[in-house]
Design the sequence.
């Protein structure tokens, strides 16, 4: 692609940005339209920064700045996920010029659809991290003392594992997965924070673990020491909300900003659980 | 991992096994049955004799037939369909938003499942009749249902298709059959991932190609079956019936075909007469054998 | 033994390694972070992590040389015992990270592969693709998650650390933090507190750092009485992509593979770059340094690019400062083969293909060598005493500082791939120290007086409420003030520093600080109010900004990243050997005199009543490797080096003699 030459390509003077807002959990969402000056090389983060500094809608009403989440601004931290023009993605790598090519009318920003909204574009992704606990996504080393190096690993193993290890827990794959449902609980009257959290975890643990966690399970099952927990991870994957929930829609792999081979992991997990299940039946 | 004593429901606890069973049943026996069934039906193209012979073969287990029918078709179907509906209900279809091919295929798998449900209900009512209580059959016969007669296989099928101006049923069948072919073939592909047969994207792409070929073959077969049942006219059916009747008589004579009048074609008035006359038959008809 | 609990603030490499080590030692940890720890800034690190290794050892490398490279790179401003300890730990750190599952790149035989990084002759740097920081962070994150599942760690993510809690004796007894969702402010009592909150790039507006790197946490400790050291040492990377939201790192290899740096001779030439003929292009690096061309060392490239834009006004873009880094003369196939990965980054974020269109780049603030002052206990062999409670403790008892937010290890300039090491090392090494400190105390976290906790909370609550309501008539907008602060700091206190500019900047920053104290917020709500959180961190940027400026102003020399052209040591001018020798002697005298005056840590203490830092200076422990001049690119370097070596030898002989006679 060649640079967008302002002289050649007509660019609007202003960009309309429609934002789906929500003041808090359980509140009704509503839409607001903002207008900012067009500049070349904007991304959605800078658009939101402009809106935050402006804090005025297109019809001049003063409003609270739109709340959103971001971190690295270079697509490695996973913070800034949202739906842009109806598609879930990282907003730091979403370039306005490209988006305007798709739809030159306006930019539409919405929070992720499968996670409870905290405010505006910020969602609560605790469940995503909880899934990593469910599949024990870690290497169970004895200690953090100096015990010499780890086992030698072939380059091919590294090359298989490295891509999986790049998962930044952004949740794009989950948001696009038609088998992944939203779990949003409300704290009951008189319920303590602890009780509520416990209830929430229970609900999470019955929901779909999600492709990212399946992939992490495969990553650690392919590690010389990580293997030690292979059986437990497969138990988790065959438990409630395990791999069986996947219906092979394969959106996950299509939207993953890190291009992680999720469906390959899912198929590998399919085979591993098949073998695991048969073994368990006969070894009982 | 859960910190409390909360127990997941039976269904959740065994979800993995249930889903794997669902997947397995979709292929064996259901998918297999469908292939055989469609091939048998397609054999009508070769003339009523071929078809009738096949039906005789299928009906040869006699009293065991209902057992096979229930064990290998109806129960698996009910299980697969029930779980399938539950799965579909819990899906959040989004192929409008994410128009990737695989996602569309995923959505279609669900839509065709639902179509299959409706179609199979109509189809079984239409030809088989569902329950075999005489009063029921007599009642639905007025609506043109329960029309198939195994010992007049080809002709009763053709006549049944021609009911309703000869257009309603053919359209339903075409839609249903094509949906089911898609559902089965795409299901075969997803099952390969579910069970871990094809793993890499390359392998999955190759599997897609194989499935497309299988799908094409099955489509030809199913269209043949459809055409064989749809194209002949009522007059053709009368000719077929003559052939079938001859085969029946010869068969009964040689002892190859058990004498079972109820598996033959009669005028509806005749049936009503029979009900009054032959009490015993009523009882045995309750568990009728399947057709092809 | 009673339960022990430590609060760790910050979940980057330093905070996570500390957390996991403490949990292993049986100490419960409350881990507080602005962001889910897995999203901490450490994920951005690309290059790698250093250690001497079996391969380099056989080429003559050892831990001592790694140590030497580090202090030489840091222009001897680093206290040597901690650096020595780190260098000797480095191989163990890599081994541990390997065991934890970091997918380091492998050789054909399955060993960890290494690459060479700036500032050394050896291939010391282990790496995991182009995302080493991410991979290291994830491995630690996984261990912490494991401890969390065991119940040893509680995470408080989306919590803003507001300040340490101190009892009447001054000992740190916990922290106050605020839930950024519900806005609840609460106390976290603890036996000890570890601050591992990373760098302060946001003081410069935009930098290569994450948006979390506000330095606010360090500043809050600073304002509570902790000392801040070497603030003026800020590393600037020569080539970054100047986005309107962030300055993203562009690897040096682009120049290595033949990239040419230029600007149009005509200021703000509006023509497309490819339409500007060669004669109207100013290849300033090639013209000014015919010998090195575009491959001048990092700091020189940085200064020249800066100079072209700031002083000569030749920036390519009228709105933003940047120059062209041109690769378009190189065949595409070759570019893809050699630089594919980094060109894709450029394309992804700029939407422009650098194979067709020159890249726009500009130096960017990258790392803060300075940070919270922390103590250490020297061991008999010149390293750190393992388990000594004072290792990495700030001057506030019970408050520890580790990682990028402490000031050890990197002196006046950080060596590439050493920072990840220092973060993990400090986290691991301080575990036993903290544990021993806790054992030595008679009162634990459960014994903190309720009033101490509630006072600390109500103080923060007041600050919070005040911000929401106190300035209804003001029209000060925190985001705009932040932009101004960033501009001032970037102009005055990055690459080239001049005293008049620094003085002006101090005046402006003082003014901005006052304005920032009366911002009017457009969001006064009490539910995930990012406006007020940002306003607080903005206000807390000023103590650090002032410390940087003041430190830079008072340091009249060039050292590492701190460059003042007016105090540059001259090259030798004489042609005659004897005269040249004399000049070299003079040069060395001047160098020694300068070291006597400035080879000292700048120590800042904050006076909350005047809102100004007070500076003092502290000697640096250079007992292991005597300082020597860094002479890269200087005319007459060879002779200066000769003189310096003779002197060093004479000194050493003198010392040896004194030792043998005594
Ligand atoms: C682009 C880039 C590339 C780099 N590449 C390399 C490299 O190749 N090799 C190398 O050695 N180094 C590299 N570095 C430097 C290195 O990445 C950092 O120095 C290091 O990651 C710092 O780690 P840390 O643990 O100290 O802090 P961080 O990772 O910055 O973590 C800080 C933590 O503190 C928390 N925090 C901050 N403020 C608060 C608050 N007020 N309340 C609560 N929590 C708070 C944050 O949430 C975060 O969890 C690079 C740096 C950059 C910018
Ligand atoms: C053109 C297409 C088809 C024709 C002509 C056809 C014809 C028939 C006939 C004649 C019967 C016998 C009814 C009876 O015994 O009373 C039957 C039953 C049945 N058909 Fe089909 N069929 C077709 C497609 C399908 C398809 C695609 C399926 C899907 C699996 C299907 C499933 C069944 C089932 C489950 C029964 C009842 C089984 C039984 O009676 O034992 N049919 N069909
Ligand atoms: C009668 C109504 C039916 C419904 C509602 C239905 C529904 C479904 C659904 C929702 C799926 C997706 C399962 C998943 O993604 O996990 C599925 C899969 C499948 N179905 Fe059906 N189905 C029906 C009938 C049939 C029939 C008659 C056949 C055989 C011809 C069949 C064969 C399959 C196969 C092979 C799969 C693939 C299983 C897998 O992915 O592992 N289905 N069905
Ligand atoms: S797998 Fe990809 S999309 Fe999913 S969380 Fe990880 S990085 Fe994001
Ligand atoms: S999108 Fe969802 S259904 Fe499976 S293949 Fe991916 S997890
Ligand atoms: S801000 Fe880190 S991924 Fe976008």
Sequence:
């Amino acid at each position: 692609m060649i640079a967008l030459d302002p002289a050649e390509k007509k660019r609007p003077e202003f960009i309309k940005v429609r934002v789906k807002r929500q003041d808090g959990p359980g509140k009704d969402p509503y839409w607001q339209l903002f207008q900012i000056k067009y500049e070349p090389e904007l991304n959605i983060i800078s658009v939101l920064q402009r809106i935050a500094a402006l804090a005025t809608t297109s019809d001049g009403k003063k409003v609270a700045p739109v709340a959103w989440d971001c971190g690295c601004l270079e697509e490695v931290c996973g913070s800034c996920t949202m739906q842009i023009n109806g598609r879930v993605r990282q907003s730091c790598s979403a370039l306005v010029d490209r988006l305007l090519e798709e739809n030159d009318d306006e930019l539409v920003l919405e929070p992720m659809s499968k996670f409870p909204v905290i405010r505006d574009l910020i969602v609560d992704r605790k469940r995503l991290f909880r899934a990593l606990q469910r599949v024990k996504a870690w290497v169970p080393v004895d200690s953090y003392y100096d015990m010499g190096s780890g086992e030698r690993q072939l380059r091919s193993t590294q090359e298989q594992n490295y891509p999986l290890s790049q998962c930044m827990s952004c949740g794009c794959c989950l948001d696009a997965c038609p088998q992944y449902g939203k779990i949003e609980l409300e704290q009951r009257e008189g319920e303590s924070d602890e009780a509520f959290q416990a209830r929430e975890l229970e609900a999470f643990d019955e929901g779909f673990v999600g492709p990212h966690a399946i992939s992490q399970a495969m990553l650690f099952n392919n590690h010389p020491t990580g293997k030690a927990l292979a059986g437990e991870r497969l138990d988790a994957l065959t438990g409630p909300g395990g791999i069986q929930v996947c219906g092979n829609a394969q959106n996950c792999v299509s939207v993953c900003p890190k291009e992680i081979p999720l469906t390959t992991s899912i198929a590998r997990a399919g085979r591993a659980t098949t073998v695991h299940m048969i073994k368990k039946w006969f070894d009982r | 991992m859960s910190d409390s004593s909360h127990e997941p429901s039976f269904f959740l606890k065994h979800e993995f096994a249930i889903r794997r069973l669902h997947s397995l049943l979709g292929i064996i026996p259901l998918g297999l049955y469908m292939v055989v069934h469609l091939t048998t039906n397609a054999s009508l193209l070769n003339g009523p004799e071929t078809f009738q012979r096949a039906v005789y073969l299928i009906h040869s287990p006699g009293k065991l037939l209902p057992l096979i029918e229930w064990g290998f078709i109806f129960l698996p179907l009910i299980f697969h369909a029930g779980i399938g509906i539950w799965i579909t209900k819990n899906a959040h279809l989004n192929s409008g938003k994410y128009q990737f091919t695989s996602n569309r295929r995923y959505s279609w798998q669900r839509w065709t499942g639902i179509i299959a449900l409706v179609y199979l209900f109509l189809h079984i009512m239409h030809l088989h009749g569902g329950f075999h209580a005489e009063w029921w059959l007599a009642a639905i016969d007025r609506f043109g249902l329960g029309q198939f007669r195994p010992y007049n296989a080809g002709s009763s099928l053709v006549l049944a298709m021609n009911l309703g101006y000869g257009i309603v049923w053919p359209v339903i069948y075409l839609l249903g059959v094509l949906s089911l072919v898609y559902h089965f073939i795409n299901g075969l592909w997803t099952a390969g991932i579910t069970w871990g047969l094809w793993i890499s994207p390359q392998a999955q792409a190759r599997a897609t190609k194989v499935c497309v070929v299988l799908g094409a073959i099955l489509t030809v077969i199913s269209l043949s079956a459809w055409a064989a049942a749809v194209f002949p006219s009522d007059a053709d059916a009368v000719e077929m019936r003559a052939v079938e009747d001859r085969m029946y008589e010869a068969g009964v004579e040689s002892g190859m075909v058990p004498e079972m009048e109820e598996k033959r074609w009669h005028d509806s008035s005749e049936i009503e007469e029979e009900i009054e006359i032959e009490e015993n038959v009523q009882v045995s008809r309750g568990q009728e054998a399947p057709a092809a | 033994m009673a339960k022990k609990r430590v609060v760790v603030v910050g979940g980057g490499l330093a905070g996570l390694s500390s957390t996991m080590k403490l949990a292993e030692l049986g100490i419960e940890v409350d881990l507080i972070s602005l962001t889910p720890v897995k999203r901490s800034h450490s994920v951005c690190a690309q290059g790698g992590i250093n250690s001497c290794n079996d391969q380099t050892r056989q080429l003559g490398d050892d831990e001592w040389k790694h140590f030497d490279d580090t202090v030489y790179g840091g222009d001897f401003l680093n206290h040597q015992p901690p650096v020595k300890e780190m260098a000797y730990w480095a191989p163990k750190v890599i081994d541990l990270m390997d065991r934890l599952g970091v997918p380091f790149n492998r050789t054909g035989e399955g060993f960890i592969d290494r690459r060479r990084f700036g500032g050394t002759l050896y291939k010391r740097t282990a790496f995991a693709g182009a995302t080493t920081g991410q991979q290291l962070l994830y491995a630690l994150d996984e261990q912490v998650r494991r401890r969390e599942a065991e119940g040893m760690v509680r995470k408080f993510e989306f919590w803003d650390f507001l300040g340490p809690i101190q009892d009447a004796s001054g000992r740190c007894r916990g922290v106050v933090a605020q839930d950024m969702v519900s806005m609840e402010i609460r106390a976290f009592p603890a036996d000890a507190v570890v601050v591992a909150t990373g760098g302060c790039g946001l003081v410069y507006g935009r930098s290569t750092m994450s948006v979390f790197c506000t330095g606010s946490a360090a500043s809050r400790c600073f304002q509570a009485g902790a000392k801040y050291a070497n603030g003026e040492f800020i590393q600037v990377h020569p080539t970054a992509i100047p986005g309107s939201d962030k300055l993203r790192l562009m690897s040096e290899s682009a120049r290595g593979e033949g990239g040419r740096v230029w600007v149009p001779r005509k200021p703000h030439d509006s023509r497309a770059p490819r339409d500007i003929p060669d004669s109207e292009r100013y290849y300033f690096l090639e013209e000014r340094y015919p010998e090195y061309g575009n491959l001048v060392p990092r700091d020189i490239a940085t200064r020249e690019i800066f100079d072209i834009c700031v002083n000569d006004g030749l920036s390519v873009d009228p709105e933003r400062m940047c120059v062209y880094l041109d690769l378009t003369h190189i065949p595409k196939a070759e570019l893809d083969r050699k630089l594919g990965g980094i060109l894709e980054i450029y394309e992804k974020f700029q939407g422009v293909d650098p194979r067709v269109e020159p890249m726009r780049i500009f130096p960017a603030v990258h790392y803060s060598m300075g940070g919270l002052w922390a103590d250490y206990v020297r061991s008999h062999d010149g390293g750190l005493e393992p388990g000594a409670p004072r290792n990495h403790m700030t001057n506030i008892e019970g408050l520890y500082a580790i990682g990028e937010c402490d000031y050890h290890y990197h002196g006046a300039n950080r060596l590439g791939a050493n920072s990840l090491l220092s973060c993990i090392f400090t986290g691991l090494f301080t575990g036993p120290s903290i544990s021993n400190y806790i054992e030595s105390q008679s009162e634990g976290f459960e014994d903190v007086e309720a009033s101490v906790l509630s006072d600390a909370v109500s103080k923060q609550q007041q600050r919070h409420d005040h911000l929401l309501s106190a300035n209804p008539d003001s029209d000060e907008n925190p985001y705009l003030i932040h932009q101004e602060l960033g501009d001032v700091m970037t102009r005055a206190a990055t690459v080239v520093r001049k005293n008049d500019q620094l003085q002006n900047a101090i005046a402006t920053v003082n003014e901005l600080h006052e304005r920032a104290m009366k911002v009017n917020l457009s969001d006064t709500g009490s539910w995930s109010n990012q406006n007020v959180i940002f306003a607080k961190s903005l206000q807390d940027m000023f103590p650090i900004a002032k410390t940087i400026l003041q430190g830079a102003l008072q340091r009249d020399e060039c050292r590492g990243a701190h460059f003042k052209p007016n105090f540059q040591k001259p090259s030798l001018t004489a042609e005659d050997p004897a005269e040249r020798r004399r000049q070299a002697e003079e040069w060395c005298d001047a160098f020694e005199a300068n070291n006597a005056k400035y080879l000292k840590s700048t120590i800042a203490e904050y006076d909350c009543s005047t809102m100004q830092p007070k500076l003092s200076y502290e000697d640096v422990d250079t007992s292991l490797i005597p300082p020597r001049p860094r002479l890269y690119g200087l005319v007459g370097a060879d002779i200066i080096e000769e003189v310096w070596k003779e002197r060093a030898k004479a000194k050493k002989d003198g010392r040896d003699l004194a030792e043998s006679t005594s």
